Each structure stands twice: as C-alpha cells, then as structure tokens.
Amino acid sequence: MNPAFFLVNLVPLCYHEPMRRPYQKIFPPLLVLLVVCVPLFSQGNDSQTEITEEEVRQFLEHYKNRYIQKDRDGFVSLFSSKAVQNGRDGFNEIKRIYSDFFDQSRELRYQLEDTRIKIYREVLISGLFYENAVSVEARYKVDQILKKRGKKKVWRGDIRWILIRENGALRILYLDFKH
C-alpha cells in the first residue's frame, strides 16, 4: 500500500478525537516513521518475485546433488552470506564444517522424506522484512562412507531450512538439524 495513503488519510483521522498526553505528541511522528521507514528495511525488488513450490523442490534437488558430489563451492553457494546453522554457526564456520565433512567422506548418500514446504509472501525474520521466504521441514538420512578404513556412518534426524531470494536465487538463511 502506498505510504502517501496513510499520511493523507490516516493521520487526519487521528485528530478527530482528542488524544491523551503523551501520545498526542509522539503518535504522528511514530506513524510517519512506521509508514515511511519500514519499507526501507525490506529486502529489495529481488525478493518480490514469488517463490513457487516447484522452485523450492528444484533448490532441494540442487542441495542434495551438490552434497553427494561433495561440491564444496557449489554447496556453500546455496547459503546466504548472512546464513546461520543450528543457531550458532555463521557463514565462514558453515563453510569450514562442510569442507571438513566432505574431506572425510569417500561417498555420501542423501535422502529426504516427509518434506513440508510453507511459502510466506511477507514475513519478519530476525528484525528484517522479507517479501518472500520459505520454510522447509523434512526428515533426512545421510549415509557416509569414510575415506579411512571405509567405515560407514548413518546420520538421520529432522531438518529445517528458511530460504530467501537473494541476487535472484534461493539461498539458505537458516538451517537447523538434529541427529
């Protein structure tokens, strides 16, 4: 909605009844701040293209393929530079963790089950407004064969991604998983 609509139509309505102090002096500036400044904190035109379920499924397929191919650079490119993993690991730590994991692995298999996709047209995430974001939840299973002695490890649990559009492509903003 056009911010001018609020300034022209809503602010005068506020003055039809007397306001009680201290709101009388701070309400109009707060309203202007909200109407004018909040859109400045939203993500750019890039995020305005609607995200489709098909696009999310393609993203998950790229994620899976780059993971099993141990494509470090390709895999890390799926993350936003603002990404956070398991509530603590930032982008550089994420890069290091997956580099080490891929280096230890001779072979990887990755499966997703019970995938649930929720697309949000508008959402507030960590204080920033996104016009498009996606929450994806699933159960995962990773079969890892280690380079040393060919030992097999199985990792399984719940996983959740928050995806946003960044520079025209979907990127991971948050990734949480439990073994």
Protein architecture, described:
- The protein has helices at residues 3-14, 23-41, 53-68, 72-76, 91-104, and strands spanning 79-85, 105-120, 123-125, 128-130, 133-146, 152-166, 169-178.
- With 179 residues, the protein is of the alpha+beta class.
- It has two domains: 3-41, no CATH class; 45-178, Nuclear Transport Factor 2, Chain: A (Roll).
- A five-stranded mixed β-sheet has the order 1-7-6-5-2. It has a two-stranded antiparallel sheet with strand order 3-4.
- Helix 1 (3-14) packs antiparallel against helix 2 (23-41).
- The chain is globular.
The proportion of residues in beta strands is 35-45%
Total helical segments: 5
At CATH's second level, what is the architecture of the largest domain? Roll
Biggest sheet architecture: 5 strands, mixed
Strand order of the largest sheet: 1-7-6-5-2
Q: Helix- and strand-based class? A: alpha+beta
Please give the number of β-strands. Answer: 7
Tell me the name of the CATH class of the largest domain: Alpha Beta
- Rg (C-alpha, Å): 22 Å
Distance between the amino and carboxyl termini: 44 Å
- Count of domain modules: 2
Which descriptor suits the 3D outline?
globular
